[in-house]
Design brief:
Elements: E1 2-6, H1 17-26, E2 31-35, H2 39-51, E3 55-59, H3 71-80, E4 86-95, H4 103-120, E5 124-129, H5 132-142, E6 149-151, H6 161-166, E7 169-173, H7 183-191, E8 197-199, H8 221-232, H9 236-251
Parallel strand pairs: 1-2, 2-3, 3-4, 4-5, 5-6, 6-7, 7-8
Amino acid sequence: MIDSHVHLNSTQFDQTVDETIRKSMAVGVNAFICIGYDAVTNMKAIAIAEKYPNVFCTIGFHPEVAKLVTPADIESLEVMLKHPKVVGIGECGLDYYWDKSAINEQKYVFQAQIELANKLNLPIIVHMRDSALDTLKMLQTYKDKSTSGIMHCYSGSAEMVPDFIKENLFISLAGPVTFKNAISPKEIARIVPIERLLIETDAPYLAPMPYRGKQNTPEYLPYTLAEIAKLRDIDVDKLDQITEANTIRLFKLPLKK
């Protein structure tokens, strides 16, 4: 397994990165994509990736910090994106759930990162919350067709999955697919083309059942994998091989498929 989206750079893991990686590897998680989302966590993501051979990272600016991002920050990001352990851009995107007062700033910062992804030929990690139509429109408008990426912890409708697939994007599912009342995530798990499916934890957030409500960890990734395998009626080891190969292909990871 590869955890395609984990925040080992979050303060919740400050004292436990070694232990977390060790325990996760013990249950079959072979590699980790550590996701940055602001200036501080971008630096931490790179530092963690430098320390561990099986940790890679992406860096970018989350929509929640869009108000603080300047053109100089975007220029600095472009320089940092050339680090050999950086394999993608983001977490970035649009989030209208908490604050609708910064929509213009969010769109500016998202567009800038899409354009960097095009320029540097890097996959983009897309955060989307209560903003599906605007997110899709921006991707259609600004992203080159050859630029790939991930709809991280996909929360859109099943009907829109083909629209994002058409934009050369992967669909990643996390702990919510294991929730008993998660009708939409379970439907999406069944219909995503298997060559476009990824798994993630988004740890320390969104712990799967039976740990819902507790701090998440990549050690719990097997629960998400098992639930998706059950929903798709596929052998869990086979699904593991496919999603791992998908992740390696997308990020061009120097790992054996």
